[in-house]
Amino acid sequence: MDEEGNFIELGGEFPLEENEHFNKLSVNTLMSDIQVPTNVYNKDPNILNGVYMSEALNDVFISNFQKDPTLTWQYFGSSAGFFRLYPGIKWTPDSNRVVSFDCRNRNWYIQAATSPKDIVILVDVSGSMKGLKMTIAKHTINTILDTLGENDFVNVIAYTDYVRYVEPCFKGTLVQADLDNREHFKLLVEELHVKGEAKVKKAMKESFRILADARANGQGSLCNQAIMLITDGAMEDFQSVFEEFNWPDKKVRVFTYLIGRDMTFSENIKWIACNNKGYYTHISTLADVQENVMEYLHVLSRPMVINHDHDIIWTEALFRRTFLKYRIYISSFPTTHFQLLLLMTSVAMPVFSKKKETLSHGILLGVVGTDVPLLEVMKLAPRYKLGAHGYAFLITNNGYILAHPDLRPLYIDGKKLKPKPNYNSVDLSEAEWEDTEDSLRTAMVKGETGTLTLDVRAAVDKGKRPLFLKNEYFYTTINKTPFSFGMVLTRGHGQYMFFGNVSVEEGLHDLQQPDLTIADEWTYCETDIDPHHRKLTQLQAVVRYLTGKEPDLECDEILLQQVLFDAVVTAPLEAYWTALMLTAPGNAVYCPTRVTLYDYQAMCKNAHHHTSGARALLSPAESVLSVLMKILSSPAHRQKKVELMQPCNTEYPGFMYDTSIRETNSIIKCGRCQKMFVLQQVPNSNLVMLVVQADCDCILNSFEHNATVKCNRMKSQKIRRRPESCHAYHPHENGKDCGGACGIAVSLTLCFICLATSLALH
C-alpha cells in the first residue's frame, strides 16, 4: 500500500501479452513468476531464500522453450510452498482475496516426491472428539486422501472401543487410491459420528495386519507402508504392539496427528511416531491441517533424497484446471481438439539438497516439471489415416485411459447418460468391453507389443443403431514412460486408396470459398514449431504453404492433396442446397455433414458445409456425394434439452437382433412376474414388428440395485504394472527428526520467543 492508501503491484514492471500457444492467455515469455498460497507466510526466510535460489531457472525455462517450441508450462514447486511458473502469468485471488493453489497438493509434486505407498488411516471417533476436533479430524483425513494417487493403496478405519471400517466392503484389505475410491471415502468420512471410549490398541493391530497381509500376498504398492493415527490423546501402552508387529525392522512408519489444543498426551503421541520412523504434528485449528499433513511426504522422500535418485514420473491425464484464475470444465466430448489441448499429463522429477552436512536428513527442495498436452502424442496417429471407425488411444500402467474416442455420452431410449465424471479413472475394460478376457488390457499394461482381433459393435445415431465390425488392435509401450499406445483399424481399411488429381490453383479457389471450412482439429500443417506460425489457423497455414508464402511450414502433402480434391468435387453442393432451401416448406434448413463415428452433431451453421479430408475416411464402394447426408431440422424436430441420468450399478436385459432371424419370441423376467414378446420381420423392408405383453411392468427402476457387484468392482485389483523404482528405506536416515512443538512452528525465531516467554513467566 502506498502513502495514499492505494494498493500497488510488487516486483516491478511485468508486461503480459496474449499468446496463442498458451490458449490465448496473457503471459510473459521472458520471465517466470512466483505464487505463494495465502496460508503460507510470504516473507518467511525459507520462502525468500528459495525464491532467490530458484531465479536461475528463468534462463533454463527460456532455453528449453527456444529449443522445443511445443513445450507448454514449465514450473518448480518448492517444499516450502512457493511455486515458480514459466511463462509468467498474473495471479488473481478469489472473491475473498485468497489464493488457494498449493503446488504441494498436486499429483506431479506428490508422485515425484515420494514412492508408491500403502496407507491405513486410523481416526479416533470417541466422545472426546466431538465438535471442532471431529471437524479438524475429517479435514485431516480428506487432506491425506488428496495426497494419494493411482499407484497408492489405502483404507480408513474409525475406532472407539471397537474397530469399524468406514466402508465395510473394504474390510481387511487395501484398495487402490484412484479418484473414485478417494471420493467414496470422503463421503463416508463426512458421516462419522462420535461416541464411546477410545481404545486404539485393537485398531493399531488391525492396521498392522492389513499391511502385513498385503506385503505377504504381493498386493498393494509393495513399497512404502504407513499408519496415520488421528486422535486427541492415547493413554494405552503401545510398546507390546510395536514389538509384535513392527520392531526391530520398522517396515511400517507411523505418523501421528494430535488434534485439539490439549497437549496432555503430546509426549505419548510423539513417542509413537519417533519410535516408528514417522513424524508427529499437533493440529489445533483447521488452518494448521494443510502444512502439517505435508510433513509426512517429506519424511517418505528421505530415502530417495539420500540416494540422490532423480526418478522421472509421468502423471495420469488431467484436464488442466491448473493454477490459472479460471476453471475449465469437462464437456460431453472429451476427445475434441479443444479438449485434448487442455488434457495434460505432467512429467516431473525431484530436486534435493546435496550438502553432506544435511545428507541424513534427506532434505527435499521441491519438484520441477512440465505439462505435455495429449494432443501432441495423439498426433502420432493422424485420424484421417485410421478410417471412419479407426482410432488411437493411450492407457497408463494401471490400465486407466489417457485418451480414447469412446468416452462419449451414452444413450438409453434417447435419454443421455452423464459421462463418467472422473475421466482419469476410466479403465480400458470399460471402453473396450468386447474384450471379455481382458487380453488387450493385460498385454498393454504389461508393456507388450502385439496385435489382437476382436468382433465389436459400434453404436451410431446416438446409440440407436449397432454397427458390426471386425477390428484389429495394434499396441506397444512408450519407452521411459508408464504409458502404452494402441491403434485400431477396421479390417479391410487401407486395402484401397483413392487419389484425385486437381491443380493447386483450382483446389485453392474452391477451398477459400465462404461456404467451406476445414476441420481445425486436424493437423494439415505444423504451426506450433515456429513461433511466427502460431497465430495461423489451419486453413491460413494451408493457403500460405500452397501459395509459397510460407515454404518452411511442415505440411502433410497427402492430406493436402485429398482436401483440395474434396473441395473441388463438393463445390457444386452449395447451389444444390440453396435450391433445396428455396423449395423446402416452412423454415426447414438442410444441413450436410459427414457420416462418421466422430460426427455426433451436425456441424452446420448458416448452411455452411465442413470437409476435413473426408476422402480418406471412405470405403472403396463409397463416393464423396454418397457420404454427404441431408439432415432436415424443422421447429418440431429441434433438439430438446434432455434430463441427464447418472449411471448406476443396475442390471437389465438387453437383446441383439440378428437380421437372419425372420421371427422369434422370448420372455423377460421382472421380479415375481414375466412378460412375453414376439418379434417378426416386415417383408420387403428394413422394419421389424415387436409385440410385448403389457400386464407386467418392467421399468428400468424396478431392477434391484446389486450392492455386491458394486463392492466387488470397487475393491477389485486388475493387473497393473508397478513403477520400476521404490525408495522405502535407507540405513543413514535420521529417524530422530520426527517432529515436535518447535518443528512445526512458523520459524525458529518464534520458537525461541515462546521458550523465552515461558521462562520469564516461571
Describe the largest sheet.
Answer: 7 strands, antiparallel
Shape: globular
Strand content: 15-25%
Give average pLDDT, whole number.
Answer: 79
Distance between the termini: 41 Å
What structural class should be given to the helix and strand makeup?
alpha+beta
**Which residues sit in consecutive blocks of at least 5 with pLDDT less than 50?**
321-341, 408-419, 589-647, 700-704, 741-762
Determine the fraction of residues in helical runs and give it as a percent range.
25-40%
Gyration radius from CA atoms, angstroms: 31 Å
Tally of extended strands?
A: 32
Subcellular location: Membrane
Domain VWFA: 118-300
InterPro entries: Ca_channel_alpha-2/delta, VDCC_a2/dsu, VWA_N, VWF_A, vWFA_dom_sf
Protein name: Calcium channel, voltage-dependent, alpha 2/delta subunit 4b
What does this structure look like?
The protein has 762 residues and is of the alpha+beta class. Helix content is 26%, strand content 22%. The protein contains 21 helices and 32 strands. Strands 3, 4, 5, 13, 14, 15 and 16 form a 7-stranded antiparallel beta sheet that branches. α4 links the parallel β6 and β7. α4 packs antiparallel against α5, α4 packs across α9 and α15 crosses α17. It is globular and about 90 Å long. The C terminus is likely disordered.
